[in-house]
């Protein structure tokens, strides 16, 4: 699934994101709104990942949907 599709269906995707990244709160998921750059930033912040690693995790997650 590409990021445009994810952003358009974010309300449905939030549950899947929550199950993948349990440290993200509902408020943070609402703020992300399906935007890849927002998700990558939160993954970096919450999990201490480098930008490249966070982008890979986000892309792997999107491809698994």
Automatic annotation (TrEMBL):
Superkingdom of this protein's organism: Bacteria
InterPro entries assigned: CsbD, UPF0337_stress_rsp, YjbJ, YjbJ_sf
Pfam families, A to Z: CsbD
Domain CsbD-like, residue spans: 4-56
UniProt record similarity statement: Belongs to the UPF0337 (CsbD) family.
Protein name listed in UniProt: CsbD-like domain-containing protein
